[in-house]
Specification:
The protein is an alpha/beta fold. The chain is built from twelve helices and eleven strands. A six-stranded mixed beta sheet has the order 3-8-7-4-5-6. The chain has a five-stranded parallel beta sheet with strand order 2-1-9-10-11.
Amino acid sequence: MSSMDGQKPISIPVIFLKTPLNGPPDPYTSHFSHNPPSPTSLYQSHYVHVLDHTYDFAPINALFSDLSNDGTDVEGTITLFPYGGLIFTSGRAVAAFVVALEQLSSSAPGNPSKASATLLQRLQNLAIPLYAVGPATAASLHSLRARLPACWIKGGEEAGTGELLAKLILKEHQNAPNPVSGELSGEGVKKPLLFLAGAKHRDIVPVTLVCHGIGVEEMIVYATAEAPSFPSKLASALADTADASVRWIVIFSPTGGESVLRALGLLDKESSKVCRADDPCWVDRKTFIASIGPTTRDYMKDTFGLGVDVCAARPRPEGVRQGIEDFMRAKGLTS
């Protein structure tokens, strides 16, 4: 890839399969636009909405109801709360808990019920860790911590995958005199952790912890499905970037992976696996695929037999860009 002096820089389209953030430019747009791959080329960001989310507040509301109806005073909060910590692996799980709290405080606009007001006071005094996978989930937890000021956030940057978060919790469990929460239930048994998750999720965190003797209860608080508009909007983005000599698709979750491969003509119609390397669909290939992390990478490999071209070492704009540029440099795709 080269460009003569005075010519317009070559654009490298990057199609992000996510909804851009509202307000300021999305972090991916900002980072990629300010860090061109070479003096003769630049990145061109595109976004395609992939996922629709449906929240299920019933399990959280049931927990709040149990806490509201026990008839004890505000100081009983820590003893009565049945979990020694909360685990979040996505911002959507955090959002579900935050919205449930907001609904609790506005159950009777301007005049919450006495039970709700008492529970909100109790939760203000709740002091347990909030565990997060990755920096994005940790950042979303700040909105929850504003409502639970005595809690503290663990993980985030230092726990970019479920495996790393599980190791962090295990280390705390091994080093603490009274592991995890420092609190016992009324029966003298250490409280379990509560894992708030979507209907589709990896089990690496709860399975790892349970195998090492740490109790974990799962609570499903949202469901995710491919947006009906995704295939057509993806087709439009591919058509708009069809003239590019090189382009990238960045996948942020397993959902939508099949639509991507079908749109690119990479799936065998009979087996629903990717075409063989000698198949015509691979000839003159110019579209490359990056995954945000190992969960999506493994899903694409296990389900479709596709090894993504890049798996970000860190689930952040910097990690994705570095992986893309390392790949292009190794393949001679940048000047």
